[in-house]
C-alpha cells in the first residue's frame, strides 16, 4: 500500500483510530474525507493525514481527492439501529445511497481496492452464530442499508474488477467515541464516570460481541492488503458473546462506580442475541483479536477520564 489511501469518515471514531494504526504501519500517504457532522477535526492531526472537509457522496468532492488513490476505506455512514428506525429516509441517504456514490466515484477514478464498513445488523436475527453463509434478513433500515452496500461492493467487483471487501463490524468500542450515543460501552462508561445510574433497554439477557477498535482496525488493514478480494464478506468480532447485563456489571467494576442498574423498554429494530463466528476472517485474513473485553473497557475508561468533560 505505497499509494495514497483515502478513508471516508476519517475524523470519526473508527477513522481516527484507523488512521493512527495505518500510519504506525507506514501505510500512506493518508487522506481523510469527512463532513464533520459527527467527526472531530482535532482528532486527526495535520501530520497524520490530509483532511478534506466535504460530503463523500458528492462527486465533485471525491473527484478532486481520488487522484493517485489506490485504496478507499469507506467508513462514513449514518450509524445506529435506533436512528434508522426513527428516520429511515435519512439512513438510506447516508448508507445505501452514499455507498453507491463512493463506489461509483472510485470506478470512475480507477481505484483498485475498496473496503466497506458493514455491520452484523445486515444479517438480522439469526439462530446460532452469525457467519457469512447465513441468508441475511435485516430487521432494521440500518441493517438493510448496509446489506445494500455489501451487494453493490460485490457487484462492482464482478462487473468492473474492483477488489472489494465488506467487513461486518460487531459492537465496536474504544477511544475517540465521544459521539456514540447508541453504543452500550461508551454510554455505560460515561454514566459511571458521572455517577449516574445505567439503563438497559430490555431484560439484560440480550447479547452482543464487543470488539476493541484496535482489533477492528487491524482487520480493516488486513482486508485492504489481502489479495484476491472480489466482493468478499467477513464477520469482524471477537467470537465472545456477552450479555448487556454482564457488560453493565463489568463496566461498573472496571470504572469503580457503585451506580444502580435499571431497565427500560426494548428498542424496536434491535436483535436480541448476537453470537459471531469469525472463522473466515481468521482463515483468510489471519485476523486474531487480542484485546479482552475487560482490558478494552479499562483502556477506554482511561481515555474518557482524560478527554471527556462530562458533557
What does this structure look like?
- The chain is α/β, with parallel strands linked by helices.
- The chain has 2 domains: 4-172 and 211-236, Rossmann fold, CATH 3.40.50; 178-208 and 240-274 and 292-307, UDP-galactose 4-epimerase, domain 1, CATH 3.90.25.
- The chain has 10 helices and 13 strands.
- It has helices at residues 13-24, 59-65, 81-86, 88-109, 141-160, 184-193, 213-225, 244-255, 279-285, 293-307; strands at residues 4-8, 30-34, 50-53, 69-74, 113-119, 163-169, 171-173, 198-201, 207-208, 210-212, 232-236, 242-243, 261-264.
- A 7-stranded parallel β-sheet has the order 3-2-1-4-5-6-11, with helices on both faces. Strands 7-10 form a two-stranded parallel ribbon.
- Helix 1 links the parallel strand 1 and strand 2 (30-34).
- Helix 6 runs parallel beside helix 8.
- The chain is globular.
Brief write-up:
With 311 residues, the chain is an alpha/beta fold. It is built from 10 helices and 13 strands.
Notable traits:
311 residues, alpha/beta, Rossmann fold, UDP-galactose 4-epimerase, domain 1, 7-stranded parallel beta sheet, two-stranded parallel ribbon, 10 helices, 13 strands, 40% helix, globular
Strand fraction band? Answer: 15-25%
**Integer count of domains:** 2
Distance between the termini: 39 Å
**Biggest beta sheet attributes:** 7 strands, parallel
Average of pLDDT? 94
Q: Tell me the CATH superfamily of the largest domain.
A: NAD(P)-binding Rossmann-like Domain
**Helix content percent band:** 25-40%
Structure classification: alpha/beta
CATH top-level class of the largest domain = Alpha Beta
